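User: I'm curious whether this sequence folds into something compact or stays loose and floppy. Could you predict its structure so I can see for myself?
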Amino acid sequence: MTRPSKTLCLLLAVGIFLSHMLTKAQQTMTNSSNPLLAPFETPHQTIPFDKIRLEHLMPALEEALAQGRKEIEAIANNPQPPTFENTIVALDQAGELLSIVQAVMFNLNSAETSPELQRIVREASPLITEYQNDILLNEKLFDRIKQLYQQRNKLSLDPEGATLLEKTYRQFARNGANLPSQEKARLREIDKRLAELSLRFSENVLKETNDFVLHITEEKDLAGLPDFVREAARLAAKQRNLEGWVFTLHQPSYVPFMTYSDNRSLRKKMFMAFSSRAFKGNENDNQAIVKEIVQLRHQRAQLLGYPSHAHFVLEERMAGSPKRVNEFLDELYRYAKPVADRQMAELLAYAQKNGFPEDRLQRWDYAYYAEKLKQEKFGISSQVLKPYFRLEKVIEGTFAIANKLYGLVFKENPSIPVYHPEVKAYEVFDEQGNFVAVYYADFFPREGKRAGAWMTTYRDQHVRNGKDLRPHVSIVCNFTRPTETQPSLLTFEEVTTLFHEFGHALHGMLSRCKYQATSGTSVYWDFVELPSQIMENWCYQKEALDLFAHHYQTGEPIPQEFIEKIVASANFMEGYATLRQLSFGMLDMAYHDKPQPIDDVDAFERAAIAKTNLFPEVEGINTSVSFSHIFAGGYSAGYYSYKWAAVLEADAFEVFKEKGIFNKEVANAFREHILSKGGSEHPMTLYKRFRGGEPSPKALLRRSGLLANP
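Assistant: Here's the prediction. I'll summarize afterward.
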């Protein structure tokens, strides 16, 4: 069965970038002239991005939908009695062409969109939603699935087959297959509208992000900004044919400005612009969209027999219920809040000692004074560390660590077509030289690329006709660009982001499953961050840093004292950081746990996160209207999963720390029981096979410096 492509750590990706568009006129394509409908004569049957044009997309989608419907009808109307192979496996493999077209149309709109592409995606989205509902509400098809599900104990299925059958039945049942006709029709209406609203939400945030520019013409307004920040801003101005310096709301520009600028009024201006995106009452305002999405999600859940959207979502999560999630968030809150209060008091005292005139820090003061206090306490700063983290060397470091852990070898292949000249494509091989995966990497911000970082796939690993089809995996980030005088030098936070997304990529690349619906990252949402978050730990280990952290000019390895300071400062302001993450999780649960009317998005948000707020209230800003994780991505009723997975990865990494961070026995066990298994069995079953027991939150609390609190 065709599934939406998987996108992690922020949103489900949508669309495609085409760098050589010749025409925008719609036309009818034959299979031979539409590269999406012809055989891919490319290495490993990768997407022929160099041949695809915008006008190919809709004809290819229409053909793919037609083929998919024929395949589904053949399964539903099969005169033979239902078997696992002719129904469940056939359904998993149906819609292959549609999977390809979706991988093109729906994966890359986030990387380089345009008004024309957004129009195409808006046209395509309801067609795909309708197609998926046609499958999920197909009574003949569901009857075959239900017969097999009722006989499941007699089918002698292996664990992965049993999981696929269970997952398939639940997918249909949880999406209306048991509803009467009138309610099925209402479900279709809701799904179609939700798809439209999600697209509009994402487009509005991107437009608001791109529309703001801070143009500085006087050098005095650059006070405090390091040379690398100034140079990037001058290049940004030059690209716009402007004199002076330009700062934007994209992370590589926004974060350094907020961290280093001495000009408090400009910091406030940047903060207000960033925090008021889609909250201005204009055509890009998302408040009405938020209210409608929340309302429709609850209506949908109740139509299906669930008390709330959160109950519906969490039925298929490790946490299991809203009650358990709220207890989990509250437990971490009890540890984090006292630490956060002490840390913020220390930060305020430091700021006042250095001339800050007020009795409370404002939100636009936090990053500025935190960076200065961190440097004073630990003698370390982003500016000092950046020369040791040249992007190309960090990429090599991820490859070297993957080699030492899992025996993987990465070889760039310029003959693999890519969707933008900046994208790199690699072939991945194992120690025996066997092909493992294709790996795409896209690192720099562009005007058409949404913010954040994510991993996605163009082809999921699975077995078809006895052949193991290896995956095509991609990570997309927004890192500091090279300037006219310097290469791309990453902040330490960008380094950990790259390792995080690379961990997701390894989860996709090392999959060894039989079915698309169980392979790679097709796991419970609160388990999916384990492979990504555990990879961040290597960024703090000397043995790993020595592989790639070398000064870009001298080649000298990062000094031991710097490594010690990185480790010592790892928990700096961790109480505040934890509280901030918890606030997002609590806001998410407030929207989705209890059906309730939302008259005012801003008032609702303030009430939901009041106990986590450490700053004075600021009028005119709002998080919800740009909270793409939960309103345009897959994290609704699931944002808590970042902290849930942190418990898992902190507990799991203790095994590596005990036996060696490159211990082959431990790495092989993690690969065998976690990375290769995808969602073939329940995640706790897989985790306990690796760890020998259930995870303890004590490892996370110890590492975060929060354990000493009640």
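Summary: Residues 212-275 form one domain. Residues 198 and 520 are 25 Å apart (CA to CA).
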